[in-house]
Design goal:
About 20% of the residues lie in helices and about 20% in strands. The chain has about 325 residues and is an alpha+beta fold. Strand 1 and strand 2 form a beta hairpin. It is globular and about 50 Å long. The chain binds ligand MTE. Ligand MTE binds next to loops.
């Protein structure tokens, strides 16, 4: 598996973010142009660019496109109606309904800390400045369910380079929006809001680390973290923080929401590792949403070739 196959970069301008019903046709076109790699080939039953068909797009997509391992994409419906977003509710199937009116415009992200050029970006600046690409990634939740998701977005490294990190910057801290009026779950005082996450600077600068702005060729819906979320595909899903408003470069390992609540259960690294059990359940296998039965969990969620070198000096069992 080459990193080229994984990245499948499909540059798309924000002005061209596709309505869902033409998503497949655009993919066909890009395939014909040789822009999408073999792993994303469409099944022969998919409509061609010349003869668009009024068939339900989610069904087609689910059977037509795959990740680089050949696993089919989850449907738009699955990806947008089975969510973890504790700012709204702990009930995965109610997030979409509770988040549907969440206001995501205007939106600003402050990037600051140990950098030469701190800057606050409006969402529009980000969409204009950084070409949007499609990335098909597996998402493996620490709760042992998983999905295959076609994100749109841009590399976090491109954004960080803009602010010129200082050599003293060793970690990146991310913070989600705080808005209890719109996010009923934030009235739950048990959780140390706002949601926070962190990466080492090497992880943050890795090519696979994505700032997602969309999925299935559409703008990100609120339940998936609109308008801007992190996606770190080799780590458990809780690292992929939603609705980001602050990105701070620092020289110490930051606290995270989950490691504050339960440090023995949710470590800072949280790399997908089938050999290290969660204290309350095994991580050896997972339930792919839309499939029956379980499948083995892959080391680093199948991205070992790309990321294992980041951890060559640490004992992965100790750095859960
Ligand atoms: N980000 C915030 N702000 N709040 C959350 O509750 N949940 C995390 C992560 N990001 C969460 C979050 C968890 S546990 C997972 S598995 C993923 O988002 C789920 O992303 P999805 O709903 O898009 O599948």
């Amino acid at each position: 598996m080459s990193s080229k196959a994984l990245l499948k970069s499909v540059p798309v301008k924000s002005s061209e973010i596709t309505p869902e019903h033409v998503y497949l046709n655009r993919r066909q076109f890009l395939k014909a142009m040789g822009i999408i790699g073999a792993g994303t080939f469409l099944a022969s039953c998919a409509p061609s660019a010349q003869s668009p068909q009024p068939t339900a797009p989610e069904d087609l997509k689910a059977s037509a496109a795959t990740d680089e391992l050949g696993d089919p994409l989850n449907t738009y419906e699955e990806i947008t109606h089975y969510n973890n977003y504790y700012e709204f509710t702990t009930d995965k199937r109610d997030v979409a309904m509770l988040a549907k009116d969440f206001i995501t415009s205007p939106w600003q992200v402050k990037v600051y800390g140990l950098v030469n050029k701190p800057k606050t970006f409006g969402l529009e600046d980000l969409l204009q400045q950084f070409p949007q690409e499609e990335r098909i990634y597996r998402l493996r939740c620490v709760e042992a369910w998983s999905m295959v998701i076609p994100w749109m977005g841009f590399s976090l490294s491109a954004l960080l380079k803009e602010v010129e990190p200082l050599s003293a910057a060793k970690y990146v801290r991310f913070e989600s929006v705080m808005n209890p009026d719109q996010m009923p779950g934030q009235k739950q005082k048990f959780y140390p809001w706002p949601y926070q996450e962190g990466l080492t600077i090497e992880e943050a600068m890795h090519d696979l680390t994505l700032m997602a702005t969309g999925l299935y060729g559409k703008m990100l819906p609120p339940q998936n973290g609109a308008p801007l979320r992190l996606v770190v595909p080799w780590k458990y899903g809780f690292k992929s923080i939603k609705a980001i408003v602050k990105i701070e470069l620092i020289d110490y390992e930051p606290n995270t929401l989950w490691s504050t609540i339960a440090p023995n259960e949710y470590g800072f690294y949280a790399n997908v590792n089938p050999q290290v059990s969660h204290p309350r359940w095994s991580q050896a296998s997972e339930r792919r949403i839309g499939e029956s039965g379980r499948r083995p969990t892959l080391m680093f969620n199948g991205y070992a070739e790309q990321v294992a070198h980041l951890y060559k000096d640490i004992n992965l069992k100790d750095f859960y």
